[in-house]
Specification:
The chain is α+β, with helices and mostly antiparallel strands. It is about 25% helix and about 30% strand. It has a single domain, classed as 3-Layer(aba) Sandwich (Glutaredoxin). It is globular and about 40 Å long. The relative contact order is 0.25.
Length: about 150
């Protein structure tokens, strides 16, 4: 079980441009690592746009933002272009990163149990330690959940 105070699991995956991104790329910076179900759906768009609208605030506080979903690199490119997202999105088509971060599993949707992406966010400090886990994401207010104001 991943929780506050534990070392963030090492990951690597390709972003929307096909560039390899790794946890170690963010050493020395705080990282908002967020997992979401699907590009261009209402909740995922609201969450991404909330993070985008506050992106300069994140940067000024020493944070980087990185999203992860099962969508393809091409889907991520369209999502980024359509909404002007200033951060990268990792394509995790085999769910390896999602599983590593416990963001893949059973969930209830409309009273039905399915297997899929569990929306959640990890805040990782400059040394790679998880400082916060947000499991009940409020998509339109996610920045305030992360930064506390």
């Amino acid at each position: 079980m991943l929780k506050t105070g534990t070392k963030a699991p090492y990951f690597e995956g390709e972003n929307e441009c096909g560039e390899l991104m790794k946890l170690t790329d963010f050493r020395g910076k705080k990282l908002v690592l967020y997992f979401y179900p699907k590009d261009s759906t209402p909740g995922c768009t609201a969450e991404a746009c909330n993070l985008k609208d506050n992106y300069h605030r994140f940067l000024s506080l020493g944070y980087e933002v990185l999203g992860v979903s099962r969508d393809s690199k091409a889907s991520h490119q369209k999502f980024i272009e359509k909404y002007g997202l200033p951060f990268h999105l990792i394509s995790d088509t085999d769910t390896s990163i999602l599983q590593l971060y416990e963001a893949w599993g059973e969930k209830k949707m409309y009273g039905k149990v399915t297997t899929g992406t569990i929306r959640m966010t990890y805040i990782i400090d400059e040394q790679g330690i998880i400082t916060d886990v947000i499991g009940k994401v409020k998509t339109k207010e996610h920045t305030s959940q992360i930064l506390g104001s």
